[in-house]
Structure formats: structure tokens, C-alpha cells
Amino acid sequence: MGNVNPRERRPRSRVPAFGRHLTPWGFPVCYLGWAYLWWLPIVLSGDSVWTFPNAVLFLVGGSSPLVAGLSLLWLTSGRDGYRDLRHRLVETDRIRPRWWLVIVLLYPAFTLVAASVAVGTGFTSAPLEVVEPQRLLEPGSLALLLAVALVFPAVEEIGLRGYWFDQLQARWSALVASLILGVVWAAWHVPLVYMVGYYDETTFQPELWWWLPSIVLTAIIGTWVYNNTRRSVLAVIGLHFVGNLTGETMGFAGEVYPVVHLGTALVAVCLVVVWGPESLRGWDRSKPNAGFVERSS
Is 279 within 8 Å of 285 (Cβ atoms)? Predict the structure, then answer.
């Protein structure tokens, strides 16, 4: 009987194979399941989200993009996946100068144009609610502003774009993948509307009938930036940050919000028509390929 290499006798790990069986629907199950598990008690309590223990439950539930994304990324891709994610988070050379301009100027420009249209058409004489200076001087309000503008986008996009979106785009067009991501992303936001006190310190007071469709449309805009910056997670975090910061410091008045999302729809439609639904990079250009390699099973 010949000698057998001990390494050949070891059974191969079943973990990576199991992880791939969860692709692509394991992420939304974990993402929504973890968030709802911790957030529904807040809603049912009827107490402010910022009281104890609701604030703790909120933060734990809000980590669901990271929990789902990083856990499943390890199961499906291991160190290669983490390495690829790190590159996409820190490499600024993926983002060409014109795309930095898009990231920084898109939402402020959209807000000012929409406000001008609202005034010009006589819809309202006060389309914007500019943040009060004293709010920027109050530590609690300032901390919430920075969290909404920067921390939340980073947590969300690491899971949504850093892990899940490439799986969707590998199976469907950029447009279809964006719509799927947008619907799941919108579902994640639903409990926030029912949390007492969540929006008390913000200029934003959403209603589900117009807010959820706007989130789906926003996902298309995010994909446009993501696909044209070599899958840069940093780029979509930046876009998300500027969008949230603009909304918190120069938000639309309550009566303008439902109507202004017609403008969001117009922008999304124009992007699809001009850049093509298959890749959102140009009609003759293919979708960017995922850079990480799955672990062998």
C-alpha cells in the first residue's frame, strides 16, 4: 500500500461551499433579520429610540449591514474578499477627478435646482429648511448629524456595495441589480419611521409612500457612481455622505419632498437612457468584474 500524503486525507472545508449556497439571498435574510430582531422591540415599546435600552437596541440592529456583509464575505471569499474590500475602501485612484466632482456636487446641485424650480413654478416660496446655526453648536445634535451623514453611510455601504451588490450584478444587469438592492434597502429603513423620536433632531420627516420609492431610485444613482469608479466602496460612501449631509443642512420643506422625488426619478431615467441599463457605464461598455476570488471548497 503506497504512502498517502496526510494533507490529501484531510476533508475539505464545507464552510466556503455553504457560504456560496447562501449567495445571493443569504445577505438580505441576515441583513433584514438582524435589524428587525433588534428594532421591532423599540417600535413596540412606544418609547423614544434614544432612551435606554432602546438606544442600545438601535445601535446593535443598525450594525446589520456590517454583521451580514462581513460574515458572509468571510464565508464566501475569506481573506481574498477582505483584501479586495479593503482596496475598494481606501484606494482613491479608483475615482477619477470628474467623479469626485459628481460625488461632491450632485446632491447640492440637485437640491438647488429643485428648489429653484419649486420657487419658479410658484409651488412654494420657501422650498428649503436650512439648518439652524445653534444646532451645529449643540454636542448632541452635532453628533447625531455626523452619525447620520457619515457613520450610517459607511456601515450601510460596506455591506450593500462592499459585499452584496457584486453578487446581484453578476446575475443581472446593473439596472435590475440596483432595483433589487433598492427594494431590500428600502425595507431596512421601514422601522425607522415608526421609532418614536428618531427624526426629532433632523429636518427630514419621511412618509413611506414617497420615501421608499426614492430609496430605490437612489440605488440606481449609486450604481452609476460605483460602476464608473472601478467598484469603489469609498465613492458610494462619499456620495451617500454628501447626500445625507445636504439633506440635514439644506433639506427640502415638508410639502416639497413628495414632489421633488419626481426629479430623482427623472435623473435615474436619464442615467439609464444615456449610460445603458446593462452596465450604467455606457451602452458599449461591460459591467466591472468583481476582483476577489472565492475560496476553493
Answer: yes
Examine the pLDDT at 203 and tell me if it is beyond 70: no
Ramachandran region of residue 275, left (φ > 0), alpha (ψ -120 to 50) or beta?
alpha
Domain that holds residue 86: 6-275
Residue 281 lies in a domain: no
Which whole-number Å values give the CA distances from 95 to 140, 159, 225, 236, 251, in the listed order? 34, 20, 9, 10, 27
Q: Which helix (H) or strand (E) holds 274?
A: helix 257-275
286 located within any domain: no
Strand partners, 250: 130
CA distance 87 to 266: 33
Q: Which three cell numbers stand for residue 253?
A: 420643506
> 25-51, pLDDT tens digit by residue?
999 999 999 999 999 999 999 999 999
**Contact 156/215 with Cβ under 8 angstroms?**
no
Does the CA dihedral 277-282-286-287 come out positive or negative? negative
Query: The whole model's pTM is what?
Result: 0.90
* Cβ proximity of 253 and 129 under 8 Å: yes
